[in-house]
Design brief:
5 strands; Rossmann fold; binds zinc ion; alpha/beta
């Protein structure tokens, strides 16, 4: 087993990109795996591939568009509009049911084949968006299940689990990739790179964190 090797579940967004550079600091060898689940905006996949290239890490793209056949949400179905505001009593319609469980499971199968015990994912529950599969309890449960299912000692690392968006910007800056994260990642539900459309829920969250961070920082280069 290659103890110092990690596989990052990578989407080309702010969180997973910050995780990628965190992993590069923590581990000797890092790879990325990215999922094409039929998301509306192909630009995400292009961004992910380009960032992996910049980081100098292997990039594997896995086809998972079968998800589209069994679940409907605004990220994969262009007929459903992204809700501008978070609903009160249910998760937002950007939730792709089962996505993190499936992605981490496929990532784990891929990782075991390469004898990589560390999996890194950018999920978090500090700025809880209502996605049940971003919660710590779920990740810990899946970690156990994966280990039992493959009889292999995976460790799922979630460096952003308890960080707010503001703290995630701070971490990107600490890792010296603030500008890269700001200009090259795609977080926007409308598929606009960098600062995005500015009004979808994801842009609002990202912007709030960025303003909080820039406002608090004493010296801005
Ligand atoms: Zn947006």
């Amino acid at each position: 087993m290659i103890k110092n090797k990690a596989l990052v579940v990578f989407s080309g967004g702010q969180d997973s990109t910050t995780c990628l550079f965190w992993a590069l600091k923590e581990f000797d060898e890092v790879e990325t795996i990215c999922f094409d689940y039929g998301q509306r905006h192909r630009i995400e996949l292009d961004a992910a591939c380009a960032i992996a290239k910049t980081a100098g890490v292997p990039f594997t793209l896995l086809q998972m568009d079968l998800l589209k056949q069994i679940t409907h949400n605004s990220l994969t179905d262009s007929k459903i509009d992204v809700e501008e505001n978070k609903p009160e009593n249910r998760p937002p319609n950007t939730l792709v049911e089962g996505r993190n469980m499936l992605f981490l499971t496929f990532a784990a199968i891929f990782a075991k084949g390469k004898d990589i015990p560390n999996l890194v994912t950018g999920v978090g529950q500090a700025d809880y968006s209502g996605y049940p599969d971003c919660r710590d309890v779920f990740i810990r449960s899946l970690n156990q299940t994966l280990n039992l299912s493959m009889d292999y000692p995976f460790t799922i690392h979630t460096p952003l689990m308890w960080k707010s968006k503001q703290e995630i910007w701070a971490l990107a800056d600490e890792l010296d990739v603030f500008d890269l994260v700001r200009t090259q990642t795609v977080t926007c539900y409308n598929g606009i790179v960098g600062d995005g459309c500015g009004h979808c829920p994801s842009c609002k969250l990202r912007k709030k964190g960025l303003e909080g961070y820039l406002g608090n920082e004493k010296v801005r280069r």
